[in-house]
Amino acid sequence: MTSAGAPAHPHSDSGFARARRDFRAWRRTRPFWAGLLVLLAAAPIIYFPYFNLSLGALSVAMSTTAGAGSLVIGLTLIVLGGLLWFQPIIRFFAGCVAVFLGVLSLPISNFGGFFVGTLLAAGGGLLALAWGPVDGGGHPEDIPDGAEGPSAAVSRAGGQGSE
Cα–Cα distance between 113 and 132 in angstroms, integer? Predict the structure, then answer.
C-alpha cells in the first residue's frame, strides 16, 4: 500500500476546524473586537439602573430616574455593535456614536455602569475608528513612480526635503 494520496493530517479538515477557519476569515474582514467591546459596554449600562440587591430582609434598589435613558443608550450600543460586525462600511459613524454614547452614559446611567460601560464603549468606538480594511495583495513594487506620498520622496532623497 502507498500513502502518496493520503493527506498529511487526516482530521485537519473536520467540521470544527473548518468552522474555526471560516470564522477567522470572517472576523478579519471587519472590526470584530470593536463590535464585541461595544456590545459588552451595553450590559453594565443597562443592568445597573435596574439592579436590585437583596441582603436578607434589606433590599437595596439602584433604580434611578435615568432608567429609560440607560435603556436607550444600551440598546443603541447593542445595535451599533451588531452594525460593526455586519456592516463594517459604517465603522466611522458607529465608532463616533459609540464613544459619544459612552461619555453620555456617565451622567445618565450611574457613572456609565460604574465606568465599566463607559470604558468599554470608548475603547470599542476608538477601535472602530482605527480599523481599516486590508487591501488585497498590494506590494510596494506594484506602486508606479510618482504615486507614493511625500515621505517616500524624502527617504529616497537621503532625508533631505525638497528645498
Answer: 29
DSSP run (H or E) holding 61: strand 58-61
The CA-atom distances, in angstroms, between 70 and each of 49, 60, 116, 149, 155 are: 7, 19, 14, 46, 52
Lowest mean pLDDT among 38-42, 48-52, 85-89: 48-52
Separation CA 27–CA 37 (nearest Å) = 14
Containing 32, the helix (H) or strand (E) segment is helix 32-47
**pLDDT, tens digit, 9 for 90 and up, residues 103-117:** 999 888 878 788 999
**What angle in degrees, to the nearest 10, is found between the helix axes of 32-47 and 91-108?**
20
**Residue linked to cell 463590535:** 35
Element (H, E) at 52: strand 52-55
Give yes or no for a contact between 53 and 59, defined as CB atoms under 8 angstroms apart: yes
